[in-house]
Amino acid sequence: MVRIFDEFFKQRKDYFSKKPKDMDLKLKESLKSVKNELDGHLEAINGNTSEIQTSYECMNEINDKLEKLAERMESAEIFLQKYSNFSAVEKSFDIKPLTKTEQHVFLIIYALEDEKGLVSYADIIKKTGLPGYVVSEYIARLVEKGIPLMKKYINNIPYIKLNPEFKRIQAKENILCIDSAQKELVNF
After folding, report:
1. How confident is the model at residue 5, as a pLDDT?
2. pTM above 0.70, yes or no
3. pLDDT digits (tens, 9 = 90+) for 17-59
4. What DSSP letter does each residue of 35-52 carry, written as one string?
5. Closest Cα partner for 71 from 143, 150, 144?
């Protein structure tokens, strides 16, 4: 009788020891298939990332060249105005009235641009003491009201700058009607 039980348990042990191995193999094959598929997706993503980075660098180069071209055109206009009867047509800007806080943010951008050239959102946040999302909202409002801001990305950090023509007209004619008391609030 013991021999029957021994044989029964031996057969059972053999049966169960083989089955998990077969299942392990199937599981390993399935996991290997999933891993290969994920590796394929990773390669595709890396390829797309490289393409995006290359496109971004090309766009930055084009932006730099356009800025240089605009500066050269402005220099040529100034030269022609100075030494001939040439008169450049001034752009007219349709600007809606700004609130006091919008004027304050504008003046900070104006002054920081004179100081630094390009102004980051972090610079504006630091000078105004407003949270980042509020500064972003005010910048969007300035654009909606017709303030010509130019945005440029350097190392994925956004910088803004006023349109040079608009800045020149604002300095000459104060088209935003910013009073001197408001200008004095911006202490630099």
Report:
1. 61
2. no
3. 555 556 677 888 888 898 999 998 888 888 888 888 888 888 9
4. HHHHHHHHHHHHHHHHHH
5. 150
CA separation for the pair 84, 30 (Å, rounded): 80
Cβ-based neighbours of 102, under 8 Å, separated by 6 or more: 138, 141, 142, 145
Question: Which residue shows structure tokens 């021999």?
Answer: 3
Q: What is the pLDDT of residues 107-136, one digit of tens each?
A: 899 889 888 888 899 999 998 898 989 999
Look up tokens 């980042």; give the residue: 132
- Cα distance between residue 91 and residue 183, in whole Å: 25
Which of 105, 93, 90, 91 has its CA nearest to residue 178?
105
Q: Please check whether residue 105 is in contact with residue 142, taking contact to mean a CB–CB distance below 8 angstroms.
A: yes
CA–CA dist 106, 52 (Å, integer): 33
Residue 125 near residue 132 (C-beta atoms within 8 A): yes
Q: Give the span between the Cα atoms of 175 and 17, in whole angstroms.
A: 87
Q: Which of 1-15, 35-49, 56-70, 158-172 has the lowest mean pLDDT?
A: 1-15
